[in-house]
Design brief:
heterodimer, A: about 725 residues, alpha+beta, Four Helix Bundle (Hemerythrin (Met), subunit A), Alpha-Beta Plaits, 5 domains, 6-stranded mixed beta sheet, 23 strands, elongated, B: about 120 residues, alpha/beta, Rossmann fold, 5-stranded parallel beta sheet, 5 helices, about 45% helix, globular
Chain lengths: ~725, ~120
């Protein structure tokens, strides 16, 4: 049923929010900052997860949430003291709850013994033994999730009795003797053994919102009924209390109806009425026990309380929409921007006078399109906070598995990033956190010996910087052991013995496929995958990952990602007769240097001397394996080449040789991987205003993998043709 | 006339489930995300039946029952309480607070519709 599936989706979305609130509340409690309302919020979060999970028969989740909730309830009631051990169990339980939710969402099962371990901790707090059943749900008497005993038999078949119960009002029924009202019921009319129900409401029955007519209608659903009203107790008109209960009824129900079904009709009114259910004309069958219905005093009223808050003071109103719809909108805006560029081009081609009105309109159109695009992209942006919260869970698991002590400090949680980026960052970040705990942080003893606190700190931060999102993870561990990295790379044949590597180059060996410095395969990060997985995932998002390390002080990984995945500001250039685009963000300046500033370096390489620095000069056409340009003409007769000075995320600079620089415009990024495959040096493609397709250059890849001195020694880009964007 | 249901629950999932069950049964359903909001829209919606969760922020289900029973324009409206426990103690508490009936979560659509019909007398 699709409607139910949609609600199931809602449930998991809601679970994310609930788990976020749970973790946040627990974090406050852990530092002693929470109050009673914090605990209530934590309790409600677990409770709501349980409630929703029950609706979808996620029994393991329900069972665990129930036990978790019981512990929280104990804390709330003061039966359980919030010791550091209990706090730790709560945090770990929240982690496990999140895992169970994820597993349920992905239709995975979590090994029962894993859950049993977490349950055992909760039982220990409760001072109980864990039951045999690992999920703890089946054997709990106050925890019946199997069936709802409210089935009233055939419904909707009975003929209409309105909600207002025609004929049952006091006014219309007052009269001598009794009124008899027949309810046509379903089922056979033949005289079957039936029931005689004598029913006398107490005042509380009305106060609880019950309507006798509704009860009779429910009986009528079981079989044909005849209702007789008994007015004998009606007091005289003088001093008549209209709020009293003066009426009684006798209902005869025909048909072979089980007694339980009849009693169930009166389920809710037990104690609110005098009730006697007996077989009608009892010829055969065991006589039913007369119903013991002792009169009850009206229930004491609870202290009336006013609604606490102004309902208007709720959270900011939000609107939930399908991601598909947003993506359709984003696509449409992308097309709009292309269309805008085409119109702009056409208008330019008309070579109108600069006062022409249409030029102003086109400019207005461009600004509007840009505003629209920014607004639309903002819809997909989400704060990284939930992602960071998940990481604190990963950290706890990792610390536990390695016997190290660690805490996570997060900064910039409110930084907003595209939803898809956030989703795809979860795995690489998880890997980096595990890696940092496993390899970065020292064991507590070693840390103490080095004069550091036993507990290591991981600092995870997010920030926006000039069109990019920068995520960084810094540990205060031992730093990279470069001698060992080098030795390992040598042993694996990744580098040659005589290779002269800078520190940064050694550090970057970590990102090579299959590289792992773990002495033994730990069950944590040593799963046969290295940091190359991180790099691939980040690269697939159009981002970079960089590493920096200071011995004894720690290591920092920095991931930089494009802010949006759809549109960017590009500089349109041409290279070897082809139109290409380079991200404006990476271009520092364009220049045509004085030939004296260009120095040869070997037969092929050149460097540019500029403001006291030497920058490598990279020929884009050559780097991409395009036909050589008229080199001699460029360098000789036509003067020095046109250079683009670019800066990459890793802060390195270089000069790219291009043929021409055309203009600067917004381009819509169209991925190549899905349609063609990854090309080193090319980030993506776009459609220009004149309808031509242009490649978007990847400045970082061009500079990082610049051609070697001897082009014959290896292809221009070592990974050409074998690179994969792994999700 | 269409039966009007006011469903109060802080869980969006449960609100959606309730709304769908009620609307498929041909009832009109208004939802509120906590007790205070529920009480606030009670007068406006003037429902024929109220379904409320117990554990909610701002005002819990008992508070909702109180407010409706003691301060509203329709103190005898049927109020159904949603509970995850089937424990008699909780039912007794709900009863004592003035609830008309209770529904054990998780609920089947048919079950909740039948309970609503039961306390309102409404027929499809």
């Amino acid at each position: 049923m699709t409607a139910r599936n949609a609600i199931r989706d809602t449930f998991f979305e809601e679970c994310e929010e609930l788990l976020e609130a749970l973790v946040e509340g627990l974090a406050q409690m852990a530092v002693g900052a929470g109050d009673g309302e914090t605990l209530n919020a934590v309790f409600r979060a677990v409770h709501s997860v349980k409630g929703g999970a029950g609706a979808f028969a996620l029994e393991a989740l329900v069972g665990f949430a129930h036990r978790f909730e019981t512990v929280l309830d104990g804390i709330r009631a003061g039966r359980i003291a919030l010791t550091p051990e209990v706090m730790h169990t709560l945090l770990r339980s929240a982690d496990h709850l999140a895992e169970q939710v994820e597993a349920a969402r992905d239709d995975r099962a979590i090994a029962p013994e894993v859950t049993a371990g977490f349950l055992a901790n909760l039982y220990a707090i409760l001072g109980e033994d864990a039951p045999e059943e690992p999920d703890g749900a089946g054997d709990d008497p106050c925890f019946g999730f199997a069936a709802v005993a409210l089935d009233l038999g055939p419904l909707g078949a009975g003929a209409g009795l309105g909600a207002d119960g025609a004929g049952f009002g006091v006014g219309s029924s007052v009269g001598p003797g009794a009124e008899v009202i027949g309810f046509p019921g379903p089922g056979p009319r033949e005289a079957a053994p039936g029931w005689r129900v004598r029913f006398r409401p107490l005042p509380a029955l009305y106060a609880h919102g019950h309507d006798p007519a509704a009860l009779f209608a429910a009986l009528a659903d079981l079989g044909p009924v005849t209702v007789t009203l008994d007015l004998s107790d009606l007091p005289p008109w003088e001093g008549f209390d209209p709020a009293g209960a003066w009426l009684a009824w006798t209902i005869r129900l025909a048909g072979a109806v089980p007694e339980a079904a009849v009693r169930e009709v009166f389920d809710f009114v037990q104690g609110l009425c005098l009730l006697d259910i007996a077989p009608d004309d009892p010829p055969a069958g065991p006589p039913a026990e007369p119903a013991a219905a002792p009169p009850l005093a009206p229930p004491p009223r609870r202290e009336a309380r006013a609604p606490e808050d102004d309902p208007a003071a709720g959270p900011k109103p939000t609107l939930r929409v399908d991601l598909d719809r947003v993506d359709r909108l984003i696509n449409a805006v992308g097309e709009l921007i292309i269309n805008q560029a085409m119109i702009e081009q056409s208008v330019l081609d008309l070579t109108l006078s600069s006062e022409a009105e249409v030029i102003g309109h086109v400019e207005g159109y461009r600004l509007l399109a840009r505003d629209l695009q920014e607004a639309v992209m903002a819809i997909r942006a989400q704060p990284v906070k939930p992602l960071f919260q998940r990481m604190s869970r990963i950290l706890r698991e990792a610390a536990e598995a390695t016997g190290k002590q660690a805490r996570l400090v997060t900064l910039g949680e409110a930084t907003e990033v595209d939803k898809t980026v956030i989703e795809r960052l979860a795995d690489p970040l998880t890997h980096m956190i595990r890696n940092a705990v496993d390899h970065g942080l020292e064991p507590p003893a070693a840390r103490l010996a080095a004069g550091k606190p036993a507990e290591g700190t991981l600092r995870l931060s997010a920030a926006h910087r000039s069109g990019s999102v920068i995520l960084s993870l810094r540990d205060d561990g031992a730093g990279l052991d470069r001698a060992r990295i080098r030795a390992k790379a040598l042993a694996r044949g990744l580098i040659s013995p005589e290779a002269d590597l800078t520190e940064a180059e050694i550090d970057n060996l970590l990102f090579l496929p299959g590289f792992s410095t773990a002495e033994k395969v730990s069950n944590l990060s040593g799963r046969g995958v290295g940091l190359d997985v991180v790099k691939n995932a980040v690269t697939a998002l159009g981002g970079r990952v960089a590493i920096a390390s200071v011995p004894g002080e720690g290591t920092e990984f920095t991931i930089s990602l494009p802010l949006t995945l759809a549109v960017m500001d590009g500089m349109v250039i041409s290279v070897a007769g082809r139109t290409m685009v380079i991200p404006v963000a990476s271009v520092i300046e364009t220049l045509r240097p004085d030939p004296a500033d260009l120095h040869g370096l070997g037969p092929q390489d050149r460097v540019l001397s500029i403001r006291g620095r030497f920058l490598p000069v990279i020929d884009v056409a050559q780097g991409l394996g395009l036909p050589a340009r008229r080199n001699a003409a460029q360098d000789g007769a036509e003067g020095p080449p046109l250079l683009l000075l670019v800066e990459t995320e890793s802060q390195s600079h270089c000069a790219l040789v291009v043929d021409e620089v055309h203009d600067q415009r917004q381009v819509v990024i169209k991925g190549l991987e899905a349609n063609y495959g990854a090309i080193p040096g090319v980030a993506a493609a776009t459609v220009l205003g004149d309808g031509r397709i242009a490649l978007i250059l990847d400045a970082e890849a061009l500079t990082a993998q610049r051609p070697p001195a001897d082009p014959a020694a290896r292809p221009p880009f070592p990974n050409a043709g074998v690179s994969h964007a792994s999700p | 006339m269409t039966l009007r249901v006011l469903a109060i629950d802080d869980s969006r999932t449960i609100r959606n489930l309730l709304r769908r069950a009620m609307e498929e049964a041909g009832f009109a359903c208004t939802t509120a995300e906590d007790g205070a909001a529920g009480v606030a829209c009670f007068a406006e919606v003037d429902p024929d039946v109220v379904i409320t969760d117990i554990n909610m922020p701002r005002l819990d289900g008992f508070g909702v029952i109180d407010a409706i029973r003691s301060q509203s324009h329709n103190p005898t409206v049927p109020i159904l309480v949603l509970t995850t426990e089937s424990a008699d103690a909780l039912k007794a508490r709900a009863r004592q607070a003035g609830a008309t009936g209770w529904i054990v979560k998780p609920f089947e659509d048919a079950a909740i519709v039948s309970v609503v019909r039961k306390v309102t007398g409404a027929r499809g």
